[in-house]
Design goal:
With 89 residues, the chain is mainly α. It has 6 helices and no strands.
Amino acid sequence: MKKQFQQSRQPFQSEIQPLLNFYHAGQLPQAEATAKALLKTYPNTFILHNLLEIVLDGQSKFEEAIASYRKALLLQPAVPDLHFNLALH
């Protein structure tokens, strides 16, 4: 039961906000580091994988972005934008 609780655990908005702030300020390396740190705690969080893929794309880290797209798709396969963005690569 404890394992199931950990898998469904989601970050608070206050934890995601610094990532968004870095992204909107164009500080993509800091956004990337923040997303990766959050994913260590919340590995099954779609929004974190989605934000990471956008940040990686913005830094032309396409191979890493593709891996992040695929992880996001595993979590939310019904999101059409993910399929479209992945097809662009």
